[in-house]
Input
Amino acid sequence: MFMYPIFITDDPTARVEIPSLPGQCRWGVDRLEGFIGPLVQKGLRSVILFGVPLKCEKDPRGTPADDPQGPVIQAIKKLRALFPALFVATDVCLCEYTSHGHCGILHAGDGTIDAAPSAERIAEVAYAYAQAGAHCVAPSDMMDGRIKAIKRKLVDGGLGNKCLLMSYSAKFASGLYGPFRCSSVAAEYTLADVLLTDAIFSPFFFFSFSFLYSETQQEAPRRLVTVNATSFHPVPRALPAAHL
Ligand SMILES: [Zn+2]
Output
């Protein structure tokens, strides 16, 4: 299924060109109708939302991620109301909202990932998106146990059969995705990190896999890993390995 990625930011009237993705923009909630409407009329059936908070106050637990007034939840509600037949998926992660830029919650002492509360926090965010009306939540973090935690939360909340859980099943780090990763904003990222770390490419995965496959066949893959093989985060605080 083709899924159109929408970068949704917290200025309701924003329409900001993304230099690394010519013709693509970060959008504010108030712009969605005019932007998506014509595409839906042309046959677009699915989108995936990526929150790009630029004004929120980030903190160590990523509190703004599930702010009811935040751009993602507002966009979910708006799209569901405007386009009832549109399938709305949402990326789920904390790194856009944490002050340290990681996808989870850190141990206070050494700055390593504290897995259990990280998974629980990510599950909270996913559940909030599902409650807002998302048909699908797609966690792009790499916290151990977060799929189980999200599924448990959805089931216990009565949304287990109403909201899909899509795990990003594979990751490729490639210059191909650098521009896409640049479209979202997380703390402490540099272009080098972008080229080395890459998860928020899944919308492209659906229609560019064959291209990637041929690319990796022609040259040694720079990085070809699976989710399970990389579900670790014993990383120093200074290393912005949010999507390793
Ligand atoms: Zn992340």
